[in-house]
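Objective 1.3, modelling of assemblies. Example input:
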Amino acid sequence: MKRTRLARIVATATAGAAALAACGQAGQGTEGGGDGPAELTLWTHSAGNPAELEVYTQIIDDFNASQEDYRVVQESFPQAAYNDAIVAAAASGDLPCLLDMDGPIVPNWAWAGYIQPLGIDPAITDALLPTAVGEWDGEVYSAGYWDAALSIFARQSVLDANGIRVPTVEEPWTQDEFDAALTTLQGAGYATPLDIGAEDTGEWWPYAYSPMLQSAGGDLIDRETLQSAEGVLNGPEAVEFFTWFQSLFERGLTGNGGQVGNEEFNNDEVALSYTGVWNAQASLEAVGDDLLILPPPDLGTGPKIGGGSWQWGISSSCGQLEGAQAYLEFSFATEYITQFSDNQIVIPATEEAEAASANFAEGAPLRPFVDLTPFAVLRPPTPAYAVISSTFERAAKDIMSGADVPSTLDQAVLDIDADIAANDGYGS
Amino acid sequence: MSTPLQQGTPAVATARVAAEPGGRRRRRSSSRSAAAYGMVAPAAVLLLLFLVIPVLLAFGLSFTNARLISPEPPRLVGADNFVRAFTADPTFLRSVLNTALFALVVVPVQAGLGLVMALLVNQKLRGVTAYRVIFFVPVVTSIVVVSILWKFLYQGDGLINSVINSLTFGAWDGMAWLNSTATALPAIIVLSIWQAVGFHMIIWLSGLQTIPEELYEAARMDGATPRQQFRNVTWPGLRPTMVFILVTITIAALGLFVQIDVMTQGGPVNATTTLVYHAVRRGYREQQVGYGAAISLIFFVLVLAVALVQRRLTRDKD
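Predicted structure (tokens):
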């Protein structure tokens, strides 16, 4: 008797669970059915970014009006919540047909089988900046309309007044020159001469500082095998770089106070700012012709900047593959790429759009960013990247706060290698 | 006149007595039991879905190499995750230490401060309700908001440094409290106590108000000083409240997460990493669900042990 009662409770609970699960699935039925155009759901991370959203809305409206087989429906998420929403949707098999994702995540999702090879006209992806295309295992899985770039912002007048050479792409600052320039500027009254952006958190850290490590001769992981960080993230070059990185903070040449963004530079509280193209418009308005957009210093193997921004892919569960491909091919028109670049101040991914853009054409004020794109290095294309990213951020922050450099890097290597080993080398 | 304090025990006893014949009757009438199960069902379903099943899942996952996103099915790896936690993950060990330190400081200080505040606002003064409200405001403020505000307060040029600077007539240079390994955890302890102490003040206050005035009257007639009154009337009367407060603060303190996530992300140099934060970081952000589950399981066992010890200690004195 007792047992039947228990069985009844379990049955009730299971029924309740099933009902709840059914509610969770209810939002899914968007893939076609009926006689009208098949519906394709599209997710963007752009909620709260009207400039970007405006272009998407226009592309979607134009696409929907241009043909009668498919109808694209857009859903936008705020960027902070976007990756969580995607991972949750992926884990529960609820992914939309079309989705955008941050470049370094692409290999992870391709490996996991959440997205499929794009299969769009290769002429389109071949024409894009190499860093605007996401590949895994020899296949193209994602493509983006633009890329970002990092540079050092400075004022011509400040460099001239302190007798500091203006570096060029051909002849960037060496590490010693850069260090000396910071010391000079500190002497000239800038309490912390460089805003390196260390108050930011998350993906910014590997995006911004792993190129410096690469410039110094280290890396996040052995790029040949993608199996171990040993000797690369904790090799002598890496130790030397991080020791210098730490000393920048110790000597007060840079800091992690202040606000995320470029206000300190615009207000002339710092002399140099290591930041991205997305802050350039505001600085141009604040500083005018005096603004210099300089390559980052050459720490040994030439200057490097991070590459790989938001890109578009098609989920494996997409029931309307042809529609999704048609939409993507439609969207890579020069007109739209130019509009993204103009609205958002990002580097357009094709040469045609570059020439047509207001900010990045030959002679336009932000052109120097385009000259930096050959220095772009992709973050390592491995499914282990989620761990690498988090581990690198933690290690670099600890070093910034004064942790012992070699042992911190050794531990980071252990953490990364342990994850790769626990996943049997991620199938490669 | 029976005292409210003594009512507690007889009431419980009555309930127990009443429950027994109820139990016998239940066997006879199954329609009544069906109704009872129906009423329990919503809570039971929710508990099952969001507590029992996740706990069982975590238990199972902790012995696998499961990932949040992976094409490979999880594989059993035995106790590897636990071995890794204790031998190859110094951040985990540091998290245990930080969590213990946090609880060791917060539990007595927050409980004590709450009691002092409750005694203060328990006086029959004009405007005392205003003070109760003021002390309680941080409790109803979202901890995320509180953490963000305090992050600003703790900055090198933040309000706290300005105040110290003014009080010391400029002798204080200011420091970024959350940036130093020595001050980051204490800074978070202070903020956490400030945020939560109002809640425990209210609980103490409710305890204080169950102590009948007659006992104080009698004590005063016997010539007891205020201190003696506190020791012999107030404190024994607060005992059930004390046990409750001890248990709730301990559990809340061991689960420290939001402040860390918002303010320091476990840094600088692991000075503020905690068990729950570490489990979330490994299990979710780094997608190592199996390892995260193992950390959660260890956390579960530790909390259970602490709770059992507390129960034992507080019961022995009865």
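Chain A has 17 helices and 15 strands.
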